[in-house]
Amino acid sequence: MDSDQNSFIETFRTFLEDVIQSSHRDSRLTPMGELVEQHLGADATAVPAVTETILGHRLVDADLAMAELRTRSESRLVGISHGQMRMGEDLPGLLTNSHVSFAPGPVDYVSIATGPDTERQVVASGLHLFEFRGQPVAVLQREARPQFGQEHARLEIMATDPAITAALIREVRQLMVHLSVLRGQVLSLTGSEFGNGAAGAAFLARPTVAAGDVVLADGVLDQVVRHVVGIGAQRERLVAAGQHLKRGVLLYGPPGTGKTLTVRHLLARTPGTTAVLLTGPGIRFITEAAELARAMQPAIVVLEDVDLVAGDREMHFGPQPLLFSVLDALDGLDGDADVTFLLTTNRVELLERALAERPGRVDLAVEIDLPDADTRRRLFALYSNGLPFSSGAVVAAADRATGVTGSFAKELVRRAVLTAAEASRDVTDDDLADALEQLLSAREALTRSLLGGPGGDEPGIDFGQGDDDDGITFEPR
Ligand SMILES: Nc1ncnc2c1ncn2[C@@H]1O[C@H](COP(=O)(O)OP(=O)(O)OP(=O)(O)O)[C@@H](O)[C@H]1O
Ligand SMILES: [Mg+2]
Predict the structure, then answer these.
(1) Which of 46, 137, 393, 468 is 20 to 30 A distant from 248 in Cα terms?
(2) CATH number for the domain including 431?
């Protein structure tokens, strides 16, 4: 052996010693590890940690479930020291670590909405130590930290007996449904859990649109209400007679005719029903919405403007167009689930093929068409209600404005009132007639088409006319 070889062997030997030493250091218990070891009464490095992923909009429910479990035995909740360093570590990495000596510290909380006007301080990072079925368990609770590579919130569970871990996970899932803050709420899934650790669900105030506020052709509203509300009201009898409760309703028709308004009326009619709203690209959360609806029934899943995903070839969800996933989610629910899927569109022709290829998903399709002469008169009367117009002027305006929509009627009256307000006087029949001429004139062609007036055959543009002045909108609070 020459000296080069000798030196190589010596270097290699030192390297191996380092590897062995550092592996010993890696298994060194931190103060957190000692605490857990003491609690479990077992070698913490030998106990596996099982991870339960929690979607952002369910973190509050998981927090409530953990708080409930902790009340059932003597328990502790401890935080973890060493600030940002701990965020990237999983539970085993907190218990044995060669770099950071993680120790018990203050618990981190994050404030998350539990309703349109309420919040809860939820554990963002903390270790629950308690007994489950007489056995000591340790559960690490974490919020999502996308910046540290943790896309989802999670629970990491350690118990010496794997059967206890499995039973605990089952119990947590049940409690999350049982105690859920989402039940009976109107929610919109936003997916912001992928942003800054927010809840991923926005709570909306339940709309209060009365039947009298929705002016449709005779019998149309009743038909929809009967299918959505009526089936739910007869739940027990229908189930007893072997009938299914699940329903799929499609509202289609030109923009501004009252489809969204009808949806809001249905939500107003179903207090206590969990409603999940998905609009346009938000429809990619269909799987989460269907899962939520199944767990929280009676429930309504509203898919607004489904054409936005049907027409877009980019909007794929796995190997399938998103619209097929929507229809499959509807199909995937048990027939006896008290769940309504409510779809709206103003481009029904884009959906036809998909609906034909997946038959049986939509059991009621209702056209919300441009109002006929009689409906238009009722619409104009509704929006001029309480204003000093003569009934003759309102009828004349309605008759002149053939082919316009409800949103047109509403904007027309606002313009008349605005003109009078600017002149510091009460609104008159003339203001109404002038405003109508303005809106019908060629100069206003684009506005007219946006409002769904005659010649407005280029639909698909929504400038948020659904935002009502009654303060009830589909905007997050
Ligand atoms: N049938 C109607 N009865 C009473 N008001 C109506 C009616 N149609 C429209 N409006 C008024 O116009 C607004 C916009 O209507 P809505 O949002 O329901 O239209 P839409 O059919 O959903 O249109 P889009 O297809 O563009 O989404 C409503 O909030 C309401 O103020
Ligand atoms: Mg709409």
Answers:
(1) 468
(2) 1.10.8.60
